[in-house]
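Narrative progress, year one. The postdoctoral researcher (J.K.) led the effort to move from monomer predictions toward full complexes, under supervision of the PI. The following entry was the first complex the group processed end to end, covering 1133 residues in total.
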Amino acid sequence: MPVMLSCWLLLCKVGESEVPVSTQLTTWAEIAPAGSQDSQSRPPDTSASEADGVLLEGWQKYWEHLTPSGQAPEERKLLKNKMEFHPPLPPTSVKGGLPSMTSFFTTPVFVWHPIGVMQARIRCPNSNCPAPPGEFLEKKGFGSYARQVCGMTNSYTLLTEKLRCPYCEKVRRVASEPHGDTEDVGGCREQHYIWLAHSPKILMNLAPAVRSMFPAILCGKRAVDKGVVTLLNDRVNGVCMSKLQRLLQQGHDEKKDFSTYARQVCDMTNSYTLLTEKLRCPYCEKPQALPMMLYGASSTLSAILLAPPPRDYIQANQASLVLVESCKVKLINLRLSKEVFDSQGRDVTPLPLVAVADDQESKHEKPSLEEVLFKTGSLVFKSSTPSDMVSSRMLGSSFASLPVESGFLSRSSITDYSFPLHDTDAAAAYEFPLKPGRSGEPVAQAFDIILSETDTFSLLDLSPILISEDAEDADAVNQRNRVYAEFCSGKMGSDNYLERSSQALVGESKCKYTQTKKNSSVNKGTIATIWDIYDSFSMPNGYREIRETEQVDYLMSTRKEQDSSEGSMSGHSGSDVSSETELDADLFVVKTEPDLEKILLSEAFMNSTLVMERVIVLNIFQPQLAAFRGLPVLKDPDSEVRPGFEEHITEKKDKYLTPTLEPLWTFVSPLTRGHSITSMAWNKKNPDILAVGYGSWSSGNPQPGLICCWSLKNLMWSERVFPCHNSVTCLEFSSSNPSHLAVGMYDGSVAIYNVQVGDHTACIADSRDCAKRHMQPVWQVTWTKQQLQLSGEEREEVLVSVTGDGRITKWLILHNGFNCVDLMILKRSQGRKQSIGGGQSKTENVLLPQTTVLCIDFHPDDTGIYVIGTWDGGLHKCSLSNSDHFLDTYCKHPSPVTHIEWSPLYSDVFLSSSSDGTIQLWKLDTLNPKMSFTSVQSIVDSVKWSPNSCTVFAAIYRQHVEVWDLSRSIMLPTVVHHAEPGLTLSSLLFAKGSDSVLVGDSRGEVTVYKLKNFRVGKGKKVLNLDDVMASVAGYVD
Amino acid sequence: MAEVEETLKRIQSQKGVQGIIIVNSEGIPVKSTLDNQSTVQYSALIHQLVMKARSTLRDIDPQNDLTFLRVRSKKNEIMIAPDKDYFLIVIQNPSA
């Protein structure tokens, strides 16, 4: 705690008498010995109080002395009911002689009256006090000790009243009486029942509000004002030095002109008065105001006060800490002569400032230091104690660290003041002998006053930027400091000047946290199948892109679909069931309308429906079809009705029964109703396709006909329906172009249809545009392979038609259309004659009318040979190479030959049927029939060989069907099947690869019959027919 | 269009045909003669079945493709004509 405090110069005397005068105020009495310095400076009415030693000049009106006898100074009574007393202002001008110095050396007084003024009720601090609860301490005069308190601007004197506890006093007095002691022990006894009001015990008993009125902090020897402590607290707590300095400077540094003679100079702790002396130069008429030295002293003081010049260190610009080390200031070095004489030789030595100066006796004494200092009152700084100056200089040091306890304050340092008086005559110091120099002799008896300070303690080392004077750049720094000082001094006077310090903040790092959403991960997977890879690589690029976009659309649409379904679900939760279904249905329709349209219009869908229909029909007709194919019928093992078992029994039974025709199914459709079936033909390539020609003759006139292509795979609906402009009379499939279907019609037109096409473009050729077209009904069309060249390598199938006008015509599809070439034109007479007799004249033949050719069949092996059947019953063997003449003529039928068919299994044998009711079996080289079959007298419409057995054929009559098995019987048909009454059977066809017969009737129905129990020997077909023929040969022949 | 409708009508009128469903490529029924619930059930399940069957076939031979699928069961037969854009499903009980 480097507190530098100087002791008071004036020691407190503790006298042995009852009137101890030890305060500063009382020192005046000491300084001025009683009696010696009297009437001038002392009030005359205070002679009685001289013994008290208290000189309260100017305060007498506040005080009253109750006891002029002077027995008890504590009997002084305060007249005014207040605690602070300010002295009258010192005179601002001095006229005449030196005024009494006491008028300048005044300080305020604070009299502590906790009871007298504050009316505080203070209990006795003694713990064993016998006072009743309602009793308090009472005041008992004033304390004789006056304490100097170091205040903010002034030192002031602290007086206090004494307090006494009467009860404790009684106790003490009773206790001490038996001893009969003198009053010597009274002081000791007082300690227990009389207190000073500012003693800590009393203060601690006070209420806080009252206690706060007490202005000072008392220590053992020193007292400091609370304001100082607060201020210095501020200093320690961060108030910069410059603030403190400015604060002080504002109060102290008033630069007025020096014309006034007495100036109040405010010091840190005291105000002091600056007086100056008028000096008059005898050589100059006008006296000068002040010698320069005095000004210098004044300014030096100020400089010391404000900014002590550092000697050994250069203070950096910003450093606010003042370091003063061993600042020994030679304050005054006055060379003053003892006597001043004017030009006339008169002694103009000014009178001494103080009255002491007039005291001649003291001239010869060595004045005490105090005397010197106080008598030379013009040296104003002496009026206050040097310690004041020293302490005021200690701005760098601090009272803030002053502890309240006296123990620290007692560590005051020794004031090192030295006023070495070089002249033994101390009077020279204050007599100011300004005598004009007698013949240039220096009148100066100079003495130096050196104020020295103790060493400076560093309170706080802020490590100012200080450099040594010896440093290299010291000059530069000095220069800069100088510039700065000039700058500052220029600024300091202006109103805008504000000194402010700030601390640069260190940028702090700041942590910031941000919350983000959790990273969501999505798993995606796809499966690449082999075919997917294949598709992707095989399809063309453009299509691939389309497909990718389609996939994207697909995803989008599914998502939409899901959304809508979710929405509908939530919407439906509250509604009833019926509305839900309605809503769903609406949604369904709206969403899928374009989809459905697109699907239904696509060709693939048509195909699918076709296939589906076939499949369904096949499911339904599975047993029938199996029977048709000759396959064992698989019964549904799960079906409850077990017809298989029954049938099995019946089948076994039937084994020994007669063969019958069992109907399997019927090809019929609403379109064909009302039409009569005229012809049927199997496709050569695909044996499952059946072409059926329909015609209708209402009232004898042919009506538009119909061609239907049935498939065994769809028994319910014909695959192709070709409407024709006239009744169809015959049709036949081509074998080289399996899809070509030749059609002959009643009006003589011949057409070729391509059954692969289902629409109107199927008709690829029509003879209606041909000039040489038939004018009579076409009774049969057939295909034959034409030998274009002799080599026979290139054969093309051609269409041959036979008509009612007797022409056998070959049709060709040429580049200019459908054209025909007549193979032969039959003449009735020719045929007749030829049939009758043989060769006739050619002219007759030409002129004869044409006959009707009803049927034709080409030899299955030798395509150049064909047989025709005519209206008049003749059968003619013809050759393609000879268009003029028949090769042979078979004459047996008396009536029109309705059908001729070569046996498909046995060459050179053919059957002919006639309207005479007979069926003839012919051999190629025999002009007479080998056999003849007759069952009933009815028109045989057609006769067909079985494609499976060479001995089996079938014939159709108007009302019934006969199936002949020559191996069984040549006399009677094996099976006779009668049609329903009123129904006319019109067409017959064997099924290839099946023991089935197709019969067309006049209702437009084609019924498929199974030949049941119809067993023929297999493997010996040809032989059988030979045997049969051989067996009957003799009979017939 | 009319022809297709007619064909569908014929199919529906065939013996034992219980229903026809047309399903688009996404498995969503676009036309049905069955009730709503059955339609949804059939189309969803059969869509999966057909996809699996087609995938199987094409895995065996990528150039091959499924053209028809018949599922014969005790009670009925489900016939599926699959295509790129649609499935035609017919449920038939032949023995009915």
